[in-house]
Amino acid sequence: MAEQKLAAAIKFDYPDDAVPQVVAAGQGALAEYIVEVAEAHGVAVYKDPPLARALGQLELGDRIPPALYRAVAEVLAFVYSLDQDKNRVDQLLQEV
Q: Which domains are present in the chain?
């Protein structure tokens, strides 16, 4: 049997937020919807099923617990690198 799709979304507004918080989580159709909404709004999607499972155990609005800091930091670093790459491409396109 195929494993059910999981998804979670976090929000982190540095420096206003000290710790990221869970703003959406679900499985199955809800997980698919979370991913669709993220993609429709240009939000990066990072695949890490164990992290999605762990975040799904939290209540919406909960801050990320210290045990998940490293995993969430990897996600944030990934998103930051995507933003930097996009900024470089945008800058190059403006120079053409």
A: 6-95 (3.40.1690.10)
